[in-house]
Amino acid sequence: MHIVVCIKQVPDSAQIRVHPVTNTIMRQGVPTIINPYDLFAVEEALRLRDQHGGTVTILTMGPPMAEESLRKALTFGADRAVLLTDRFFAGSDTLATSFALATAIKKIGETFEPVDIVFTGKQTIDGDTAQVGPGIAKRLGLNQLTYVSKVSALDLAGRSIDVERRAEGGVQALKTALPCLITMLEGTNEIRRGSLPDALRAARAEIVTWSAKDAGIEDVTRCGLRGSPTVVKRVFAPTPRSEKAKIIEVSQAQLKATPKEQHKTLLPEALIDALFAHRPTLEEELTTLARGY
Fold first, then answer.
1. Structural domains of the chain ordered from first start
2. Going by C-beta distance under 8 Å and a sequence separation of 6 or more, which residues neighbour residue 102?
3. pLDDT, greater one: 274 or 173
4. Residues near 83 by Cβ (< 8 Å), separated by ≥ 6?
5. What are the UniProt keywords, alphabetically (predicted)?
6. How many CB atoms lie under 10 A from the CB of residue 82?
7. Number of C-alpha atoms within 13 angstroms, CB side, residue 107?
8. Mean pLDDT of 218-235
9. What gap in Å lies between CA 155 and CA 114, rounded to an integer?
10. Given a cut of 60, is residue 56 above it in pLDDT?
11. What is the percentage of the chain residues whose pLDDT exceeds 70?
């Protein structure tokens, strides 16, 4: 069994800057991390590998510095890492990114061994579109299982996989044939601690580095800004609220409860009265909302 996990090196969300002309994220000088959602995909792939055997290949597209994230993934126990890097990829939107990654995955299958499962996180924290995973599946003709919360069973002999995915109103239990692409939800597992042998192996490992040409991309106009039809017209930070939070104080006498008893009541009557007095329309808004359910 061969599993490919697509990860992305993203800027620390607390320190993101946007280029004033191109409206793309400026990554220079900003600390980077592995996209948090991708870690759940990495762990699930490693769990399946541990249970059924096989190989886990980590793939990322980015600048040469993205090698750091690949080595980090190797410390968790992944078997191989591939870096897709080329100046032609700069400024890629989700369409161009999914094209480059899909081409690279196809090349991985031809170079190493056929790919049975592709994992991604549900989305990235810098784009938040959740489009790249489905885009890869469409380009490669893979069955796609999005927002998966649990991999229930894997039958390699029967070439099928059972999963649970979160949907509006509940959970769906699905079964599909391999090969497939799975996007993992957050909180579905807990990434393992890398072992010392894996950390040492990761430090010495040779990262497979491919340019656009190496990955088999013949038409580079489908990559980077030239291959990205998405136009960002404006990027701005939310306007800070001018109204400051107001502290509503209720005395102990008003609460009519001792400190030991206060935990038994979520909202004492005196506090509710104080809230309604501060916002007279609140009671009517809550009543209207309750009627809608």
1. 2-227 (3.40.50.620), 252-291 (no CATH)
2. 135, 136, 139, 140
3. 173
4. 60, 61, 62, 64, 66, 67, 70, 207, 208, 209, 210
5. Electron transport, Transport
6. 23
7. 21
8. 86
9. 17
10. yes
11. 85
Residue with tokens 């579109």: 129
pTM recorded for the entire structure? 0.77
Task: Give the pLDDT score at 240.
Answer: 75
For 265, what's the count of Cα atoms within 13 Å in the CB-facing half-sphere? 14
Q: Residue 190 is which amino acid?
A: E
- Taking the C-alpha atoms of residue 93 and residue 194, their distance in angstroms, rounded to an integer, is 32
pLDDT at 182 over 60: yes
The residue ranking higher by pLDDT, 231 or 152, is: 152
Q: What is the DSSP code (8-state) at residue 87?
A: G
Q: Is 148 exposed, middle or buried (0-12, 13-18, 19+ CB in 10 A)?
A: buried
State the sign of the Cα–Cα–Cα–Cα dihedral 86, 82, 147, 133. Answer: positive
- Provide the Cα torsion 121, 141, 216, 232; round to 10°: -50
The tokens for 202 are 């990761």
Nearest alpha carbon to residue 46 among 161, 258, 210, 192: 192
